[in-house]
Design a protein that fits this description.
Mean pLDDT: 96
Shape: globular
Strand content: 15-25%
CATH class: Alpha Beta
Distance between the termini: 13 Å
CATH superfamily: Aldolase class I
Order of helices and strands: EHHEHEHEHEHEHHEHEHH
Number of helices: 11
Radius of gyration: 17 Å
Structural class: alpha/beta
Number of domains: 1
CATH architecture: Alpha-Beta Barrel
Low-confidence stretches: none
CATH topology: TIM Barrel
């Protein structure tokens, strides 16, 4: 099994939103990423639309349907009724539920499954009935993974932020990598699929994939967009795909 790349377009949208101008084009950059081999696009529409705007979603859906019908649309967000209605309006292949407060600049922790089971279970059921793959954002701590499995969740997305933050300390990086490895092993033992995301780079992906070769998808935005400023989006997607390839 090979790990696929979903390109998160939030950072592109945030740059666009600095001016009342239509560039950089979110759909245009999504087109380049998919043409370069990305398996899908990810967006996280927040209530204040500070990066992805609600109006971007149908445009991206139309792009995928018209030009890249094998690609997937992954929509992330906190499961408010408004978010769920918005997400389902564009028929995403995957919905990733995150426990973010709307004021957070980015996702920085996973769900407490025991605390939020009663809220999440009917949401998971609704999304699955609509035909979406359902993913829950998870810390690299297996506690509660069984609750997620019992809810019928398809996958967990391991929060890799602490691992990504160890770029200057190989010893700490190895420790964080093993935390992710143990959590991923437990998820797999429970029959859960596995995604990963946050602060992943060309430099730290190979070790992650070597330890967890059954990761099905990584969603990458900030690091990929930063590299695209230097290498261009098409070449950057290629670099990340190579980094995901088994050595």
């Amino acid at each position: 099994m090979s790990t696929v790349l979903s390109v998160n377009l939030n950072a592109v949208a945030m740059l666009r939103n600095r001016r009342d101008l239509p560039w950089p084009s979110v759909t245009g950059m999504g087109r380049i990423a998919l043409a370069a081999g990305a398996a899908g696009l990810t967006v996280h529409p927040r209530p204040d639309e500070r990066h992805i705007r609600f109006s971007d979603l149908p445009d991206l859906r139309a792009l995928i349907d018209a030009e890249f019908p094998k690609a997937e649309f992954n929509i992330e967000g906190y499961p408010t009724p408004e978010f769920l209605d918005l997400a389902l309006s564009v028929r995403p292949e995957q919905v990733t539920l995150v426990p973010d407060h709307p004021s957070q600049p980015t996702s920085d922790h996973g769900w407490n499954f025991a605390e939020h089971e009663a809220m999440l279970a009917p949401v998971v059921e609704r999304l699955k009935k609509a035909g979406a793959r359902v993913v829950l954002f998870a810390d690299p701590d297996p506690k509660g993974f069984g609750i997620a499995a019992a809810m019928g969740v398809d996958r967990l997305e391991l929060y890799t932020g602490p691992y990504g933050g160890t770029f200057a300390d190989p010893t700490v990086a190895a420790r964080e990598l093993e935390r992710l490895g143990r959590a991923g092993d437990e998820a797999r033992a429970l029959g859960l699929g596995l995604n990963a995301g946050h602060d992943l780079t060309v430099a730290n992906l190979p070790a992650l994939i070597e330890r967890l070769p059954f990761i099905e998808e990584v969603s990458i935005g900030h690091g990929l967009t930063a590299d695209a400023l230097e290498y261009g989006m098409h070449a950057t997607v290629g670099r990340f795909i190579v980094a995901l390839s088994p050595r």
